């Protein structure tokens, strides 16, 4: 997987959701790079990373890939941050490798089996209809829905949005987007997550956008109630908190991580 690395200090791993990329974290990393080594991956099929076949153990495989990165980078432990579907990857990693996670941050956590895909994407998951409507859905999402989601910061976010869209450009791009979004049934993919939440040992911060229309607020509240000692923060934002409120997230993370940055 493509890995972006910026800054120096105690390491922080950032895991984006769908259909974004490591550039989701640009604003947050810019504010933390003076104190932390910030690492952000492009998940398979997104950003600059090639796609891989989907399997029933997809999230477990991604967690193992994150551990490979930690070993390659030579870090004993790190903070782990996930947004949207990236939160599910972060939880699998924290559950599988608890001794390697210092602090855990979950943003707009798409982590429960009852998850319903974002309304515009549901059409792409329907056989035949998805194939027929893929070009239209893709156009509406990139030209309207995504840009409206970052309305207040549109000019400075243009580069990030173009990076998100890059893997889905060209004549077959809409069908590549459809393929990525057919990653599996949340009822199956996320079935084990609730039990994992209750077993997590890392200090956990959960942030939810006050006007998030993609992930129900109850998901964040439920996750906070299930993770021992977790703290929930509501942010004045929609779904894409790292794009819309990077300064708020950077502040919350810096306060949450505390003096861990000095541990090394």
Question: What is the topology?
Answer:
Elements: E1 3-7, E2 10-15, H1 26-32, E3 36-41, H2 58-73, E4 78-83, H3 85-96, E5 101-107, H4 119-122, H5 129-149, H6 154-165, H7 173-181, H8 186-189, H9 193-197, E6 204-209, H10 217-226, E7 231-235, H11 241-244, H12 246-257
Helix pairs in contact: 1-12, 2-3, 5-6, 5-7
Strand order of the largest sheet: 1-3-2-4-5-6-7
Oligomeric state of this protein: single chain
Which structural class should the secondary elements be placed in? alpha/beta
Q: Please bin the fraction of helical residues.
A: 40-55%
User: What is the N-to-C succession of helices and strands?
Assistant: EEHEHEHEHHHHHHEHEHH
Q: Helix segment count?
A: 12
Description:
By secondary structure, the protein is of the alpha/beta class. Helix content is 44%, strand content 16%. It contains 12 helices and 7 strands. Strand 4 (78-83), helix 3 (85-96) and strand 5 (101-107) form a beta-alpha-beta unit. The longest helix is centred in the middle third of the chain and has 21 residues, at 129-149. The radius of gyration is 17 Å and the shape is globular. It starts with a strand and ends in a 7-residue tail after the last helix.
